[in-house]
Write a structure and sequence with these properties.
Strand order of the largest sheet: 4-3-6-5
Number of helices: 10
Mean pLDDT: 85
Distance between the termini: 48 Å
Strand content: 5-15%
Helix content: 40-55%
Largest sheet: 4 strands, antiparallel
Low-confidence stretches: 1-6, 18-26
Number of strands: 6
Length: 293
């Protein structure tokens, strides 16, 4: 893959670290049937990964991302077990952090379930927001204008030069780029989309890819390029310059994200107002000066 993935690894790693709880300390447990890997009888299962991938990333998490997470889980499990052996988990500060982390996870899941149907943004709402605010342009940051120079790129990724050469030959024989990508690309997250990576910021391209991409005219295809991911064949299909306006098609996702956050904050405040009437809150010492407006 030529560009960085969303921070899925970080989210999964935080989930693992904040979980902080294990069963049956020191006792040998039966290995689960769906175990992927075990470290001293502590196992990671397919079910664990399913639960730990946030909904927003579930559709985009391919096999490589999952493999990377398993490797990180192994490393952290080894360190976790050693920390337990040295009783780091019994430190009062650590106990407080784990307690708060656990509460944070529970609250997050509670809000996801409680607000799920109240924060959905329809295409009609997104379009209305676009029509009402697009004239403000850069005032809204990158929502309505391209904040940098972008190329829309498709790629075919293979691990072996022989496969890349075959893909290159098929393209030269007149086969469609999308068909060859679906048939031969090893990038599971893009092959079904004909290899389309969407618009990629030029400065985020690896040097080897950027060198070719900037020379290609829309529709032109590069020869196989060796990169840190394997061998890539790229095609540039469109370009966007810094400051140029975005069409609704390309602004839509960010508009929906923006409105979802606004709706979420509104619903959280409404929920808190309702719950505050049902609880008793006492403040002491310097905390007595806090006002809960």
């Amino acid at each position: 893959m030529m560009t960085k993935k969303p921070n899925l690894y970080i989210i999964l790693l935080l989930t693992f670290l904040l979980g902080g709880m294990r069963c049956g300390e020191g006792e040998k447990k039966k290995r689960p049937k769906d175990a992927l890997v075990c470290v001293n009888h502590e196992c990671l299962t397919e079910r664990d990964i399913k639960y730990q991938i946030p909904d927003a990333f579930r559709g985009s998490a391919g096999s490589e991302e999952k493999k990377e997470y398993v490797k990180r889980w192994i490393r952290n499990e080894i360190l976790y077990q050693e920390a337990k052996r040295e009783k780091t988990d019994q430190d009062k500060r650590v106990e407080s952090l784990v307690k708060q982390g656990t509460k944070g996870i529970v609250v997050r899941e509670f809000l996801e379930q409680k607000l799920k149907d109240k924060t959905k943004v329809s295409d009609k709402e997104a379009l209305r927001y676009y029509q009402q605010n697009r004239s403000a342009g850069s005032k809204f940051g990158q929502i309505f204008v391209w904040e940098g120079d972008y190329l829309r790129i498709g790629h075919i990724l293979t691990q072996k030069m022989a496969e890349a050469t075959l893909a290159d030959l098929l393209l030269k024989e007149g086969n469609k780029f999308e068909d060859v990508a679906l048939r031969m690309s090893e990038d599971e997250s893009t092959k079904k989309k004909g290899g389309d990576l969407g618009f990629v910021k030029v400065q985020n391209l690896s040097p080897g890819i950027a060198e070719f991409a900037l020379r290609l005219k829309p529709g032109e295809i590069s020869p196989p390029i060796q990169t840190s991911y394997g061998y890539e064949i790229i095609r540039v299909t469109d370009r966007r310059q810094r400051g140029s306006p975005k069409s609704f098609q390309w602004a839509k996702e960010e508009i929906i994200n923006t409105l979802t956050l606004q709706y979420r904050q509104r619903e959280i405040e409404k929920l808190l107002d309702q719950l505050m009437e049902k609880v008793e809150i006492e403040t002491f010492d310097w905390a007595a000066e806090i006002t809960l407006d």
